[in-house]
């Protein structure tokens, strides 16, 4: 029995003492790097478990204790408060933001676990990690994102103490990386991105944008608020969005709240666009998707008795999008290789962070060149 399985069985015995569980170890196919995943079959229900599964060295480099504690905080504090806000305002059930049902967790360092409903029982599936989303999926995902952001605005207005607590707890702080392996991995990622760019002018612009003395400063900028501090997801990409059809309509369920932080709403949307779509999609749908996000934000806020122009008007949204493009490009350098890597080549989190500097492939080259061209156009890099 692995240590992670032992931790999970101990938690299940505490929460369901009269039921004998059957466990199935699951694979994310290269989409998850911090947890061991399990399907849990009990006589009364089916569950999904995430158990911390990361080497001590990587735990320190990735600040993994914050990741694990953040997810439990979201489920135990924010999810219940957000649900009550929606009930207080009589938001129709089909227009609510819904979290997966949470059954409990283990906060002990080294044993961090969250236990959730198994969304497969309700027909949810994970989309193809390698494919660009289509308009239907993007529209549904962005609707869910707008509703999530709207609840943070409402929390700030109606539950100011909770919102202030969340902002204090979940504000990104600059972290100086001392580990030489981490620095080497970052240099390799940057070099790999530069090498796939064929247009020399674009290559020079890329190097000016991402060849920095302090990468962490740029990462912190991407994770920081601008005009207003809103709880943002932080890793909003298709791998963290499960979907199903209900009466021919696509429904999106957001999962993986380890990276939630007080940030900029536009950054969440930009992250999704750059990591979840390809250049042909953006050519046809980028502007309509921006408008769809802001329209859905306005509608979600209206249901919570807030006017969008009072908290996040269109002009502010547009301005913040443009400001976030340069750090978003650096995020693409780091995260897009993980999106496009073959499952068999996905890195393990057993201690050597240099393994995260993945070899580039043709899919990465195609997607990244498209990202670069669009970022140059959007922000006049």
Can you put this structure into words, describing what you see?
With 381 residues, the chain is α+β, with helices and mostly antiparallel strands. The chain has one domain. It has 13 helices and nine strands. The strands form three sheets. Strands 1-2-3-5-4 form a five-stranded antiparallel β-sheet, with helices on both faces. The chain has a two-stranded antiparallel ribbon with strand order 6-9. Strand 2 and strand 3 form a beta hairpin. The longest helix has 27 residues. The chain is globular and about 65 Å long. The model has no long low-confidence stretch (mean pLDDT 92). It comes from Bombyx mori (Silk moth). This is CHK kinase-like domain-containing protein. It holds the Pfam family EcKL.
In summary, what is this structure?
The chain has 381 residues and is α+β, with helices and mostly antiparallel strands.
Helical segment count? 13
H/E series: HEEEHHEEHHHHHEEEEHHHHH
Q: Compute the gyration radius: what is it?
A: 20 Å
Number-wise, the strands total 9
Mean pLDDT: 92
Approximate shape: globular
Uncertain runs: none
Residues in β-strands, percent: 5-15%
Distance between the termini: 52 Å
User: Main beta sheet: strand number and arrangement?
Assistant: 5 strands, antiparallel
As for the number of domains, it is 1
- Proportion of helical residues: 40-55%
Query: Helices and strands: which structural class?
Result: alpha+beta
Strand order of the largest sheet: 1-2-3-5-4
């Amino acid at each position: 029995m692995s240590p992670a399985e032992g931790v999970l069985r101990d938690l299940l015995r505490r929460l369901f003492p009269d039921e004998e569980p059957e466990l199935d170890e699951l694979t994310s196919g290269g989409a998850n790097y911090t947890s061991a995943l399990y399907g849990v079959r009990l006589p009364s229900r089916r569950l999904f478990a995430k158990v911390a599964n990361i080497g001590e060295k990587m735990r320190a480099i990735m600040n993994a204790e914050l990741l694990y504690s953040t997810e439990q905080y979201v489920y135990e504090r924010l999810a219940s408060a957000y649900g009550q806000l929606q009930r207080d305002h009589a938001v129709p059930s089909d227009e609510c933001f819904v979290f997966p049902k949470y059954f409990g967790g283990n906060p002990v360092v080294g044993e961090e676990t969250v236990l959730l409903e198994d969304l497969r029982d309700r027909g949810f599936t994970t989309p193809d990690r390698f494919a660009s989303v289509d308009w239907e999926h993007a529209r549904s995902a962005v609707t869910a994102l707008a509703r999530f952001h709207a609840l943070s605005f409402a929390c700030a207005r109606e539950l100011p103490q909770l919102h202030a607590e969340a902002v204090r707890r979940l504000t990104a702080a600059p972290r100086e990386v001392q580990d030489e392996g981490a620095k080497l991995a970052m240099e390799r990622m940057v070099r790999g991105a530069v090498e796939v760019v064929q247009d020399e002018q674009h290559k020079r612009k890329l190097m000016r944008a991402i060849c920095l003395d302090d990468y962490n400063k740029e990462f912190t900028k991407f994770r920081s608020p601008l005009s207003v501090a809103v709880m943002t997801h932080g890793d909003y990409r298709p791998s963290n969005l499960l979907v199903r059809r209900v009466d021919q309509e696509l429904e999106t369920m957001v999962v993986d709240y380890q990276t939630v932080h007080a940030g900029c709403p536009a950054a969440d949307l930009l992250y999704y666009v750059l990591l979840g779509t390809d250049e042909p999609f953006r050519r046809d749908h980028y502007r309509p998707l921006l408008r769809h996000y802001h329209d859905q934000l306005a509608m979600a806020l209206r249901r919570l008795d807030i006017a969008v122009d009072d908290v996040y008007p269109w002009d502010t949204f547009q301005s913040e999008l443009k400001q976030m493009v340069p750090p978003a490009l650096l995020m693409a350098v780091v995260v897009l290789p993980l999106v496009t890597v073959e499952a068999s080549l996905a890195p393990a989190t057993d201690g050597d962070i240099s393994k995260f500097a993945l070899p580039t492939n043709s899919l990465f080259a195609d997607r990244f060149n498209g990202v670069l061209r669009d970022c140059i156009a959007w922000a006049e890099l």
